[in-house]
Amino acid sequence: MRIIAVIPARYEAQRFPGKLLADLAGKTVLQRTYEAVQQTKLFDEVWVATDSDAIARHIKTIGGQVYRSQLVHDCGSNRVAECAEQLDADVIINVQGDEPFISTQALSDLINAFKQDSEGSIDLASLMIPIANKEAIENPNVVKVVSDNQGRALYFSRAAIPFMRAPGQAFRHVGIYAFRKAALMDFYAQAPTPLEQAEKIEAIRYLEMGKVMQMLKTDFVGVGIDTPEDLVKAAALLG
User: Fold this and answer.
1) What is the pTM of this model?
2) 194 in helix, strand or coil?
3) Which of 104, 152, 154, 180 is the most buried (most CB within 10 A)?
4) Cα torsion 145, 95, 19, 49: sign
């Protein structure tokens, strides 16, 4: 099984433009993410897919493999798909460019979901973590997921799902995806679907297409860098 990581790296970011090239303790945020993914030694290749000449030049200077997007994309999966289309891969893992503390265990769990799927029934896999805080459950910026008894995703929402008549447990979606290449290419060929557009959650497109998404419980939350304040916190973690 040939397994490749693709890091989508868009230059513009609504709250923190150019954040991937921001300095994080002597290296850029993107370089630290790229090196962290490489150092897991889980992948046959690691690529960065970007819409930016500056990011492309930067990755080349550190000896990385970079794919310069030719198209404008409205979601990370499409940017990954444009790159993956020209790669020899069975499974592709999408790692966000602002995750310098990416977990080797979380990535390994995603890969193992496919290695253990002898019947080839899983199209893609992703992560979820329990949330018990009522404020987080009701926060529309926190994407929730419900799954069946086998851990297959049933639905994602910004609303509080499931509705709990008694104390229970909800799950937050951790947006790291692993795809079979065929499923990713199918997604790429499909226009945005109605529920996906209503919720603004790209994972829903796979479900509306009838794809099987295996959800894995994790304790990895990540330290995504969305604001300059997040960058300061990340630098403190690096000491």
Assistant:
1) 0.92
2) helix
3) 180
4) negative
Q: Domain locations in the chain?
A: 3-234
CATH superfamily entry for domain 3-234:
Spore Coat Polysaccharide Biosynthesis Protein SpsA; Chain A (3.90.550.10)
Which residues lie below 8 Å from residue 108, measured CB to CB, with a gap of 6+?
Answer: 40, 42
The vertex-147 CA angle with 146 and 153, nearest 5°, equals 100
Q: pLDDT tens digits for 159-178?
A: 999 987 766 789 999 989 99
How many other C-beta atoms are found inside a 10 Å radius of the C-beta of residue 107? 23
Q: How many residues does the chain have?
A: 239
Longest Cα–Cα distance in the chain: 55
Burial readout 17-48 (b: 16 or more C-beta within 10 A, e: otherwise): eebbbbebeeebbbbbbbebbeebebbeebbb
